[in-house]
């Protein structure tokens, strides 16, 4: 019998396992039996080291709003590269980009650039604690806000650990998370106004901020109800707590971020992903009075904040170029493609009578292997069977030239058009047929 020869990705993965735990630096690229290794990418197409080209709906975890190697970004960054990549001096490009982002949202009086979404959320939570003098953080069950100890609590809660919905447990992600961290995180259920307000009220006067993502990806990419967002913001206001909005993913949905759609003006907003124009980034923006906590020359300097690579000129150049190109017309165009995608996917699922559903909004969508679209984290928690079907589904799409995020999530980029969406919908239809 002829043996199959190893693919280039398999060979690299064997080597990688010797020096990288699990063979990778980030679990997001892992898949069984091995990750695919990228060779190059352009626009909405990515080619792996075995020469297979796919349409990229993963877009580096929804961070590439213009797809890969956009000519304007490549040109601007190439020019900046010649002039240096990082200085122990402030830069004009950092100032220009801060002015530009502040002009996009009425809630952004001031802004600080950091290096990741994790760091932006961490900085915002620290600022909320410094401003209020309180230590507790409230967050929605199952939401992903990056790796900061407090922000990651409950992100991987499971039926065995999550406790009663009337008082969800603070479940650690990392072994060894101090008990004091868990005690300082109050967990509320998504879209359940009464329970959430009751839980928050039990901690009245102790909560520094309510941390909100209005469409939390890990909790199911379910748009939060307007009433839920308004009730939590109202509760925070009346209790003297701040509202911190995590727009690391959702900023792409509207010109001034998803908060604009909810008529929400948070005290602080954490950003990341698309605002880096393809490079590592985070940003904390918000109300002047709160942001001034970071001003060493101010009257209320309570939060020292620095970072070696914060506001590095490469990211600033790429980010400003990318965000200027992502104007209202382009936002409307990708959101329209997002609507077409979700409608098309719902229609093939319906026609096949398959146990699957779609959530999402704007240019983001997610496929769940359950017939009713989930409404909160507990609802969206996949059964073993659904997990297996998702893996088979994902593999079938890969074979048909489509790359999604492993969770079944996709992000439209401006490099895409209707034909790419049609190709995705056709591939999903075939994948569902093959799953039977
Ligand atoms: C909503 C949200 N917040 C924070 C983060 C963390 O961002 P980063 O991966 O840049 O640290 C992510 C990353 O996926 C995210 O989706």
Please describe the topology of this protein:
Elements: H1 8-19, E1 38-42, E2 45-48, E3 53-56, H2 59-62, H3 71-82, H4 92-104, E4 110-114, H5 117-132, E5 136-140, H6 149-152, H7 179-183, E6 185-188, H8 193-201, E7 207-212, H9 226-239, E8 242-246, E9 268-271, E10 282-286, H10 288-291, H11 313-325, H12 328-352, E11 357-361, E12 364-368, H13 377-380, H14 384-399, E13 402-403, E14 409-411, H15 418-435
Parallel strand pairs: 3-13, 5-6, 5-7, 7-8, 8-9
Antiparallel strand pairs: 1-2, 2-3, 4-10, 9-10, 11-12, 12-14
Helix pairs in contact: 3-11, 4-11, 8-9, 12-15, 14-15
The structure holds pyridoxal-5'-phosphate (PLP).
Structure description:
This protein is of the alpha/beta class and 436 residues long. The chain has 2 domains: 36-65 and 328-435, Aspartate Aminotransferase, domain 1 (Alpha-Beta Complex), CATH 3.90.1150.10; 71-325, Type I PLP-dependent aspartate aminotransferase-like (Major domain) (Aspartate Aminotransferase, domain 2). Helix content is 39%, strand content 14%. The protein has helices spanning 8-19, 59-62, 71-82, 92-104, 117-132, 149-152, 179-183, 193-201, 226-239, 288-291, 313-325, 328-352, 377-380, 384-399, 418-435, and strands at 38-42, 45-48, 53-56, 110-114, 136-140, 185-188, 207-212, 242-246, 268-271, 282-286, 357-361, 364-368, 402-403, 409-411. The strands form 3 sheets. The protein has a 7-stranded mixed β-sheet, sandwiched between helices. The protein is globular, with a radius of gyration of 22 Å. Residues 61, 116-118, 121, 144-146, 213, 217, 246, 248-249, 272 line the site of pyridoxal-5'-phosphate.
